[in-house]
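Example record

The entry below shows one chain as it appears in the dataset: sequence first, then structure tokens.
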Amino acid sequence: MSNIVDSSAWLEYFAGTKNGHNFSTAIEDLENLIVPSVVLFEVFKKILIEKDETEAINKTAHMRLGKVIEIDSDIAILSAKIGHEMGLRAMDSIIYAIAWLNNSTLWTQDADFKNFDGVKYFQKS
């Protein structure tokens, strides 16, 4: 089974936090790692703001070792439907749609996903 790690979980992993350790299994299993392009966007932007461009490039290079999934029309339409039905923000609905379409486990610390099917949730510490 493939894995998708959401943006906040990647950031915890890269920061080496205690909670970040919870996501190492999924992140380090590159053969089964799927990375939505919107997650690349969010992680790059956050590291760019908090650190610098070189750090952002280096961290997202690791992410790109997984299979990067771009948003296409099918993902766009499904994510809009999911967002509407489940009350998710746009980026979250895109990430969840990609996980659903790829039969992937979504690894997260985002409480919005806490009780969703196919989600491994770890409470933010």
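Notes for this example: The beta strands are 3-5, 33-36, 67-69, 105-108, 119-121. The chain has six helices and five strands.
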